[in-house]
Amino acid sequence: MKITQIETIQVAEFSRITWVQIHTDAGYTGLGETFFGPRAVAGAIHEIFSPMLIGQDPLDIERHWRDMFDMANAFGYAGAEARAISAIDIALWDIAGQVAGQPIYNLLGGACRDRIPVYNTTASYGGNNDLHLAMTDAGTLAKSLLDDGIEILKWAFTDPFADPYRGLYLNDNDLDLMLEPMRQIRNAVGNDMAIANDGHGRWNLQNAIRIGRAMDQFGMFWQEELIQPTNVQNHVTLAHEIKAPICVSERLISKYQFRDYLREGAAEIVMPDLIWTGGITETKKIATMAEAENAPVAPHDTTGPVNVFACAHICMNAPNAWVMETVRAFYGPGGWYDRFVEPNIVVVDGHLLAPEGPGLGTRLKPDVRDRPDATVEVSDEPATEDHWGGFRSAYEVYTGDDGKRGLRLK
Prior knowledge:
This protein is 39% helix and 19% strand. The protein has helices at residues 38-53, 61-73, 80-100, 104-107, 130-136, 138-147, 159-162, 172-178, 180-189, 205-215, 232-241, 254-263, 274-277, 279-292, 305-317, 328-331, and strands spanning 3-11, 14-24, 29-35, 115-121, 152-155, 194-198, 222-224, 246-248, 269-270, 324-326, 341-342, 347-348, 351-353, 363-364, 374-379, 395-399, 405-409.
């Protein structure tokens, strides 16, 4: 079986999402997804990685991941290249599951569970106003989520206060106002709703400590990315200064960056973004590394439906998977996921159910490619020269007739 074609699909309505479909000569099509910088991602897929993969066996997933990563690492991997690798890797696993007639979690070693608790990140879409409620009437939002069986709420409660001064300045009045949504939740539902805060890496260490200490009175579920992940020791300091667990999140790319945080004890909760950090292949390894440090894993997602499916397979398989991020406004009634994939994810009583069927368990609807706002780019030619672009040596080691070894031009 060989890869015959790789295509990227983007739609203007959701302009930051890139879907990848990998086609084979055996009739299988694998689906992947990533988020942000679609032109750069498509460039990496079609200019760098597609020539490497066309004509290759799609089941050699580990080899393909290493080849792509080594190529990207020659230039600096943690950007569009990593996102492209992630989307391709998901699509390759989708093909492998279809060939085996098994869901991906069975290929990863089998299921530890058949469902996982979800928490709701408060975005809005269509008639859903969860985002507005999170900032203005969080108690009502908490009651609504509990009615759906969802017991964990997350939002970036601190963002409006960070933006004016890049997180360098925070006065006492704003700090008090920042706490109002948490007070509303506790007044409305008591401790029935767990609260997580996402700082989006916008604060300096001193203000992150002030915020963390002020929010500790509400028994926070975690503090996520109060500071940027550019300094491991700052995260260790923050963990020592506040009570809430420190969640290290989507800005860490690959097992190599997560390794440093786990080794230093700076990641009390591990939150890889599967469609940024390296796909299913890499996220499985990150989860295993976290397991060795007794750290729970809570995959990151506020993007598209394929990511949730891919994360679901990690969550069903990894023993230390804890909770899964979802967005009710996206998958629920009036949401947009089911306009693009079939089937949609299934969330029942606050739990994401295990995907059914082989591979990912979903597919892109055929009419997505035909939308008037769709941009489809296709690669179907293998590399005509060394795809390493000059990074392989022009010389080779040889053994002459006299038994002596030497170097010669290839």
